[in-house]
Solute carrier family 35 member F3
Amino acid sequence: MKKHSARVAPLSACNSPVLTLTKVEGEERPRDSPGPAEAQAPAGADASGRTSHPCWRCSRAQLKKIFWGVAVVLCVCSSWAGSTQLAKLTFRKFDAPFTLTWFATNWNFLFFPLYYVGHVCKSEEKQSVRQRYRECCRFFGDNGLTLKVFFTKAAPFGVLWTLTNYLYLHAIKKVNTTDVSVLFCCNKAFVFLLSWIVLRDRFMGVRIVAAILAIAGIVMMTYADGFHSHSVIGIALVVGSASMSALYKVLFKLLLGSAKFGEAALFLSILGVFNILFITCIPVILYFTKVEYWSSFHDIPWGNLCGFSVLLLTFNIVLNFGIAVTYPTLMSVGIVLSVPVNAVVDHYTSKIVFNGVRVIAIIIIGLGFLLLLLPEEWDVWLIKLLTRLKVRKKEETAEGGADPGSGPQSKSRRARPSFAR
């Protein structure tokens, strides 16, 4: 059986607005060249052996990966923005953010069944559901998924998952979706800070700058509405949601490490089971205390609830398993692109005012998010690129100084046509 080398780690490319808290990241694996390959033979050569500029080509595999990358970006962008807008629309008829959180989280149970269907369709060596389940349970230790492991390694993440989702959805009731989606992007900065402090990750100056930009963006976003209590509460809820999500990811990496595709799917399904068994009582209590009350079950917009859950499930699947067909950075770009999508929708459906402070805050947070996407070796790559450009410029200058020669040999050489093209 072909085993996947990709593993799940705490989400570093950002996050689902509501549900996604883990992300698949690939270990070292064979991949195509990160850039177009240079032609080995020069495009043209003269009698002195000088070569013209190299020819850049793109292989079929690279084109395929780029195509899948574009598809993943569009899917991430549309599912994230769509789920956020649909949640806002749902609250006009069904003002129950915690119940909506509970309902959508129950759909996590489908992760492992969907993964097993893909395993049966793609794997050469078929395994029964029980065999695959037992193999994935090794992620929790030699004894598998015991009752103790369930309450010590799964239940805490279920609580953090629910808090993250609820705080985010509750914030949508207070402020517009543009502010909520862009502020939640600060989650990545919080993950870096916690990883640096708790996990002793490598210090990177550019990521410190990104974290400062994220904090500055939060302050400016609060100032954009004049520090009104309504907007301040909403922004505080979003920041709390991003903080819970960051804590989830850092603890996941600290306690569980990384997981393969099947192990990730099983873990997310276990969170759905935990939600059904232990969180169901909370919406019931909220209903009878009339904190989240609806007069009749016929008044519940089931279409909106199911549509919201399907969009989030789609977003989770693409973000967790999209690494199999493209690069993680492209999926993060899809998250960033959903911010302007939400802004356009808000412009035509709400009374949002895009003043100078709000626009600058959005740009600052977006810039900080993109800086956090830089790989750890970005400075080494930049130095190599600048060195290559400097060497090439010197070669072109040397060639330009040698071409104007006026001797008879140079004249005959220039008159002689080249057939190397």
About this structure: The first strand starts at residue 6 and ends at 10.
